[in-house]
Amino acid sequence: YLRDRTEHQKRHALKIGEVYMKISKRNALLILFDLFCFAGVSFVYYLLSRHIPFSPSFTPTDYLLNIALLCALTTVARIALGIYTTVWRYSSTQSYFRLLLADFISGVVAFLIARFTPFYMTLWPFVILTALDLIAVLTARYAYRLIYKRMKTRQNSSDRINIAIIGAGQLGAFLANELYNNPNSAYRPVCFIDTDHAKTGSKIAGLRVYPPEKFERSRIKFDIDEVVIAIANADNDKLARMHAHYSKLGCK
User: Is the pLDDT of residue 138 over 60?
Assistant: First the structure.
């Protein structure tokens, strides 16, 4: 028993070590990517500042010292707020807000420190560099998230069942995102059906919302085999009527 328990503990420790190494490697690559973005943004701003009227004048040495300070504080702030422990393909609004907060804090602190040094450059370079770097990093993360989801979806989309989601509310949007982005899902949502005229014709979670009277046309267009009712707080009578209606149309 003790021998088996020891072997189990060893295997568990090895798995933890592998996960930690994987996370550490990912974090290191993400930090390097952010440093590359900051270097690129800083270089572009330096070139453009030479040709922008009323741009603050500074020497290359002063500029390098200021961006080194800003870059170091930005990296520290992002590490402190857990930016590099976030799995960005599953990121939420809170993750992007923490990134915004980290860059804002680092920009303010860097400006306050530089103001009392001989290489101070005025406020605007700090504002512009922080904003441009944040835009570049956010764009890269969001693009990575979209590309990853598209690749995963395409890998598993050939044998999925097309479905329409009845109800374009919060529950329906959550269901659509989960089914569309989950690579193990057997279903692919292709549209919403809703009676709310304020929603019909628009897009929710990337899917078009159609009124019930256009369901038959949508069914043929998207080759829909099944429907999922996603209406919160619907009473049993309403659910029974909807079940009977769509079953009569030939949908599961």
Answer: yes
CB atoms within 10 A of CB 236: 7
Which residue, among 121, 105, 104, has the nearest Cα to 66 in the 3D structure? 121
| Residue range 31-38: mean pLDDT, rounded | 94
* pLDDT tens figures, 40-85: 999 999 888 877 766 677 788 889 999 999 999 999 999 999 888 8
DSSP state of 208: E
Exposed, middle or buried by CB within 10 Å (0-12, 13-18, 19+), for 111?
buried
Answer whether 245's CB lies under 8 Å from 193's CB: no
How much is the pTM?
Answer: 0.63
E strand or H helix at 235:
none
Q: What angle do CA 48, 122, 100 make, to 5 degrees?
A: 75
Burial bucket for residue 33 (CB in 10 Å: 0-12, 13-18, 19+):
middle
Q: Return all residues near 251 (Cβ < 8 A) that are at least 6 apart.
A: 164, 219, 224, 225, 226, 227
Element housing 128 (H / E): helix 124-155
For the chain, how long is the longest CA-to-CA vector? 80
